[in-house]
């Protein structure tokens, strides 16, 4: 199949497929006589694996490691589990950060009258974070 068909079948864009090939996540595509990239069933499985890994939030380095483990039929599942557990810890930290941001913003929204008056706790909070040019150290 050509890159457009591979993109459609894998759920990735042609640009991402070329990118994954350029960084070595996907092996070099075979080429037709006219130079077009051609992809087979194994390539498609790899692309779907990459897409699903990225959908789960794994970094490109983690995807590379997962691919290596996937292709190594002698691997220990403990390695895969460890990598996934570390990723869960990262996700948990991000969830905590986003939850804190949401709570702060929700509190500000709840204290804003949202009417014709000019006072606004949301803008006041944003302004409180402004450092004057004299206070900057950069």
Oligomer: single chain
Number of strands: 2
User: Could you name the CATH topology of the largest domain?
Assistant: Multidrug-efflux Transporter Regulator, Chain: A, Domain 2
Strand count, sense and barrel status of the largest sheet are:
2 strands, antiparallel
Low-pLDDT residue intervals, each spanning 5 or more residues = none
Q: What is the H/E order?
A: HHEEHHHH
Specify the structural class: mainly alpha
Percent strand: under 5%
Order of strands in the sheet with most strands = 1-2
Q: Let me know the average pLDDT.
A: 93
Number of helices: 6
Distance between the termini: 53 Å
Overall CATH class of the largest domain: Mainly Alpha
C-alpha geometry: elongated
Over all CA atoms, what is the radius of gyration? 24 Å
CATH architecture level-2 label of the largest domain: Orthogonal Bundle
Fraction of residues in H or I helices: 55-70%
Count of the domains = 2
Protein topology:
Elements: H1 3-10, H2 14-22, E1 30-31, E2 37-38, H3 41-55, H4 60-71, H5 77-111, H6 121-128
Antiparallel strand pairs: 1-2
Helix pairs in contact: 3-4
Q: Could you explain how this protein is built, in words?
A:
- The protein has two domains: about 1-75, Multidrug-efflux Transporter Regulator, Chain: A, Domain 2 (Orthogonal Bundle), CATH 1.10.1660.10; about 85-130, no CATH class.
- The N and C termini lie far apart (about 55 Å).
- The chain has helices at about 5-10, 15-20, 40-55, 60-70, 75-110, 120-130, and strands at about 30, 35-40.
- By secondary structure, it is an all-alpha fold.
- Helix 3 packs across helix 4 (about 60-70).
- About 65% of the residues lie in helices and about 5% in strands.
């Amino acid at each position: 199949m050509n890159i457009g068909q591979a993109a459609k079948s894998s759920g990735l864009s042609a640009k991402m497929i070329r990118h994954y090939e350029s960084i070595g996540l996907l092996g070099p595509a075979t080429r037709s006589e006219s130079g077009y990239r051609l992809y087979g069933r194994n390539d498609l499985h790899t692309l779907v694996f990459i897409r699903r890994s990225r959908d789960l939030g794994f970094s490109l380095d983690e995807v590379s490691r997962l691919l290596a483990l996937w292709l190594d039929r002698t691997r220990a599942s403990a390695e895969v589990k460890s990598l996934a557990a570390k990723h869960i810890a990262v996700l948990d930290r991000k969830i905590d950060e986003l939850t804190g941001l949401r709570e702060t913003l929700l509190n500000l929204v709840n204290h804003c009258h949202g009417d014709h008056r000019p006072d606004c706790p949301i803008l006041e909070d944003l302004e409180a974070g402004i450092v004057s040019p004299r206070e900057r150290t950069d």
